[in-house]
């Protein structure tokens, strides 16, 4: 037990740790020190520097600053620096892949089933010079909505002949039943989902990727495009070159053909991002065509107070909506569809598509509710007509 400088209080082990001049218990005291002038202080320091006991070893507190371990130097550092300075190797075959030269006879656009090229936009939300295919990646020029195909003589005729050659002989009933049973179930891995964008450009690439390992692909449609499934089937067959062999409500099976060769498939450039929708003229007007403001307001109030014909859900299946609206117009002049859970954008798209079912239908949208007004009481066997671009309402 060591004593203090005056010998009044004993110095315990804890007090010795608090003294700033105390050295580590593993280091012996120096032989010559200035504390020789104070003998009692020297004796206390000498006693504190005695060999540590087992108890002191357990209570030893290591220093906070960690010891710096010697990191072995990399002998190949000069080689690594030399490798970094070398320029990256450019694959000559990959560099020659662009621009992609596609022989497809139709114009490239974001959606083929939900847009009509006959309606011209009045403005753009982004400069038309920014192509969604990327700069210099295709041999076509993007004009803001489409990338027109190069005009060549008899190009469509050659494409039709090539399609007939790939399809080959028609499938027999037994072959069709076998393919349908194989790919129509919900657990089929060869499936593509179509949303409110309809048949988009990148969907064609997905179809050909599935056709590499499967004879047919299952396509499930949801949302606004299901209002006109005939339009969906037409664009799938026309743009991909396949054939619809099965159709049930919103489920389709697209067959690739007997003579389909994945190595000779058409080259389809990928659209890198979804382009901004252009600005089109307003189709859903506050005052319906052919009516005054008071008459439009009176029809709107009648529709708001009338019971809804149907209640639509978001991303639902609207296959039977057109037929039910036509049937309702045989006895009523105002029909209301409850689109509370659909969303404003999809609500307007549904109204514009339904307006194409007859010439005398007027559309009004208020609080996610679509109203229709027709002058004739009987509308039968009318076609959907030309599709209105869905970008008009987005």
UniProtKB/TrEMBL annotation:
Pfam families: CRS1_YhbY. Coiled coil: none annotated. The keyword Transit peptide applies. The keyword Ribonucleoprotein applies. Residues 169-267, 289-384 form the CRM domain. Keywords: mRNA processing, mRNA splicing, Repeat, Ribonucleoprotein, RNA-binding, Transit peptide. It comes from the Eukaryota. PROSITE patterns: CRM (PS51295). Residues 74-87 have a biased composition (Basic residues). Residues 53-96 are annotated as: Disordered. PANTHER family: CRS2-ASSOCIATED FACTOR 1, CHLOROPLASTIC, CRS2-ASSOCIATED FACTOR 2, MITOCHONDRIAL. This is CRM domain-containing protein.
